[in-house]
Amino acid sequence: MKTIVAALTLALGASVLSGAAQAQSTLAGIKQKGFLTCGSNPGLAGFGVPDAQGRWTGLDVDFCKALAAAIFNDTSKIRFIPLSAKDRFTALQSGEVDVLSRNTTWSMSRDTSLGLDFPAVNFYDGQGFMVKKKLGVTSAKQLDGASVCTQQGTTTELNLADYFRANKMKYEVVAFATADETFKAYDSGRCDAFTTDASGLYAERLRAANPDDNIVLPEIISKEPLAPAVRHGDSQWADIVRWTHFAMLNAEEAGVTQANVDQMKGSDNPDVRRILGTEGKFGEGLGLTNDWAYRVIKLVGNYGEVFERNVGQGSPLKIQRGVNALWSKGGLQYGPPIR
Amino acid sequence: MSNSPSVAPPSRPPRVSPLYDPRVRGWAYQILLVLAVGLLVWAAIDNAAENLRNARIASGFGFLSNTAGFDVSQSLVPFAAASSTYGQAFVVGLLNTLIVAAIGIVLATLLGFLIGVARLSPNWMLAKLAGVYVEVIRNIPLLLQLLFWYVAVLSALPGARESLSLPGSVFLNQRGLYVPKPILAADAWAIPLALGLGLAAAIAYRVRARHRQARTGRQAPVGLVGLALVLGLPLATWGVLALVGADPVTVEVPVKGTFNLRGGLQLYPEFVALVLGLTLYTAAFIAEVVRAGIQAVSRGQTEAARALGLQPGPTLRLVVIPQAMRVIVPPLTSQYLNLTKNSSLAVAIGYPDLVQVFMGTVLNQTGQAVEVVAITMAVYLSISLVTALVMNVYNRRVALVER
């Protein structure tokens, strides 16, 4: 089982190989290997999913591609490791993956006791419920006595307990190891309701036998800031992950897109010039070259483009920008200045 | 040879320097080896702890007393997200594993013996059916079978609101099997007491009947009288109590709720699928063990029993099976251990056993992989060693006593 292997690797790695593994920085390790290992969702439409040809797509996948673009100027130098919610942290802790970009909620206990850091939030989400239309349920408050399918090892499992407790409702929880098993159990009628992050609900709904037979209830019962995660203790690598996201935000704000990035290189706007590395030496501070952000935009695109392509209007999910809009448009996505 | 026994010892053995004494040397090497291994293990543990500290990963076993914060539906002991700890979640998982293993072992043994005997039956049809069962079941991976039963159980049953109503207030739907739940009144203790008395009386009767048979050769209907005592006494007690108006057992019948049935006793489909899968799978192996055991008893034994005038039933029960047990018990122990360990496949079908609850949810919420995996491995090791111990004691009882 993956967990056992990872835990043993962790124990052995922690005990025997400690000196060598910890001395080398994550970035140097990636450069030496020649590729980035990225912990990815094994199958969540819009966030991380391989297609029939084995090509990975999704918002979280594109984030890894942005990192590979910044480091190697080549988005194919990535090895994606599909991880279930249950196995993901052990895989990151043990060094099996360099970065975990897998719709993972940033919470205090994860930040402080798992040995992880969450450099930047790349999707603000919240937990919701999906039910079969024929139940006639229109609000999560009517779920008293329902049985609910959920995925193990997620914050969802905890929020669910909190929500039903706070509203003095009874429920029966059936937890599965993978998202796939969870949704199948719901779809086959084992549970009345299926719960996960709202973005996931829309993605999973597409996989139902009859998507239109299912409705997503209006209540959002929690805050789920989804963020890429890295191991604690390597600030350089955390900085690269953080500023790659911020560069994509700043590019969107400055109107730099995948299509116009080459023209923009000649722009007079000092903000744009700093982002694209024609002015200043910001990339070197990260241990990369100064045109790191130019490569990210050129090969992957700015945040808005990545959002619309994977989960927004350009995708079957059609999720609104909402809180994920730029701060200047009433959302929460705010890129600190590159200067 | 100085220490050879053939040399007649005059007074004392010749003195050898401890450096060349093979016994002293042997001990020294063993002690050195143990020390070296111990040092290695200690260094590994110490190093791991240090590195976990450096990586800011929490370590130690203190997490077991932290509040769990999640719910488990199928639990033998009370468990609530708000007040229960990770330690209690561990107990919930452990008990769920133990009950599946215990029920699975009993059912698999019964079914396995039946099929094993059936395979040797002179009835061609029966023997072939048993053979097909064994060959089909034991050659398909257990995980596949579990998924099959879970999916088969789920899709074959009606939805929660269209429950199949069976006689006696029993309901069946996709959420499981619902039966009326007995609720014991304060004076219900009389019934287990009556059961105990009945059991004691039945044993006493059997002992007396044996003595009488040894003395006079006359047989007594031990089985019938025993059954009457064991079942009749508690039933009579219940009847008397009910007649005087103090019914000790009332029944809670499942009724329809908003989503599903409420009340009653619920057997979850995950539990049913797991027990079914484990039982059917292990029974196929036990059947082969039993067949091998019976065939290992020489034909002469059966013929001798027949020559003495024993009927086929008593021949099997009194002559063949006791001798076959010597061959059966050791491999049977392995099958019990296999079943217990295989119960960890529960994780695939959402049954909250030890692996699912503890190594799944608890590991993930605490992130303490090393501790959680170590505890889980220790638990399976302990369960297996205890099972093996019990079976070895039994084996010693049935083993051939050589004089």
Q: Give the overall shape of chain A.
A: globular
CATH superfamily of the domain at 60-155 and 267-403 in chain B: MetI-like
Percent in strands of chain B: 5-15%
Q: Main β-sheet of chain B, in a few words?
A: 4 strands, antiparallel
Count the E strands of chain A. Answer: 14
CATH class of the domain at 60-155 and 267-403 in chain B: Mainly Alpha
CATH H-tier superfamily of the largest domain in chain A: Periplasmic binding protein-like II
Give the amount of beta strand of chain A, in percent.
15-25%
The assigned structural class of chain B equals alpha+beta
| CATH architecture field of the largest domain in chain A | 3-Layer(aba) Sandwich
Number of helices in the DSSP assignment of chain A: 15
Main beta-sheet annotation of chain A = 5 strands, mixed
Flag low-confidence runs of chain A: 16-22
Please name the two chains that share the biggest interface, counting residues whose Cβ lies under 8 Å from a Cβ on the partner chain: A-B, 56 and 52 residues
Classify the oligomer: heterodimer
Overall average pLDDT of chain B: 86
Please state the overall shape of chain B, judged from the principal axes of the Cα atoms: globular
Query: How are the strands of the largest sheet of chain A arranged?
Result: 10-9-11-8-12
What is the terminal-to-terminal distance of chain B? 37 Å
CATH fold node name of the largest domain in chain A: D-Maltodextrin-Binding Protein, domain 2
